[in-house]
Amino acid sequence: MVKAIRITETGGPEVLKLVDVDLADPGAGEVQVKHTAIGLNYIDTYFRTGLYPAPIPCGLGLEAAGVVTKVGDGVTALKEGDRVAYGSGPLGAYSEAQNAPANRLVKVPDGVSDKDAAAMMLKGMTAHYLLRRTYEVKAGDTILFHAAAGGVGLIACQWAKHLGATVIGTVGSEEKAALAKQAGADHTILYRDEDVPARVREITGGKMVPVVYDGVGKDTFNMSLDCLAPLGLLASFGNASGPVPPFDLSILNLKGSLFVTRPSLAAYTASDEDLAMTAADLFEVMAKGAVKADVRQEYALADAAQAHKDLEGRKTTGATVLIP
């Protein structure tokens, strides 16, 4: 038996329950991982509320680090005792241990702690596909990143600065502005108090930006479009404020033949080769010290509901981990 968070219905944080579950031996192609640290991510709230469908009852969590304790038939790339991490499932990381497909795990290199790996896999790989593939950020680019003091935002600020970009970040408070600047943001905009497109126009000398990265959703969608230069790209990768409502595609034409995409980590790491490449690139910039994990909150696994309340209440900054 292992302790795990399970939900039997969708809803608020109160539906998260710590229960005992039976964990079978790993099947063919699987390994069993004893978790030492578990990543908390906004996408977890989407599964909890039902915004993203999942078979109920189910576990939550897509990201964790730990140690291989059992190896299933046919697995040769991993052995007992290996330190590993994953950031794209299987669902159920909120647990003391879980079986996972061996081909979806990556070995954690020496010099990277379990907490940092658990905090960086999903968010770090998200930053990778956004900055290196959805729109390939180049030296000299000026980019806009919403929620720059959030988990993905602080990683993206560091990485974009490492690539030579000028980073504009929106934040909700002066405290969060300071965090974003420490991570490499050149300019911060208090989105509750300032006219974001007007400030972007001022910062860019009227040119606006070629890309906006928006994990907020409904509340920022229109302002994001207004910050783009002609032919610019809006990468809408999250729904922290709720899903973007339907809109008239002709708006994209009127605002300068704009592009909008709704990318996901699952799609960008669907193949084993893409997953390995993405994780390798992430660990490389971590090894260089160009991108650092910023674990600012730790909760016991049993306190997952409180962690969700704080995350949705925007009381957290940087990364958060659950400790089994």
Automatic annotation (TrEMBL):
Gene3D superfamilies: Medium-chain alcohol dehydrogenases, catalytic domain (3.90.180.10), NAD(P)-binding Rossmann-like Domain (3.40.50.720). Pfam families: ADH_N (PF08240), ADH_zinc_N (PF00107). This is Quinone oxidoreductase. GO terms for cellular component: cytosol. Its EC number is 1.6.5.5. Coiled coil: none annotated. One of its GO terms (molecular function) is zinc ion binding. Residues 11-322 form the Enoyl reductase (ER) domain. Keywords: NADP, Oxidoreductase. It comes from the Bacteria. It comes from Candidatus Phaeomarinibacter ectocarpi. SUPFAM superfamilies: GroES-like, NAD(P)-binding Rossmann-fold domains. It is an enzyme of class 1 (oxidoreductase).
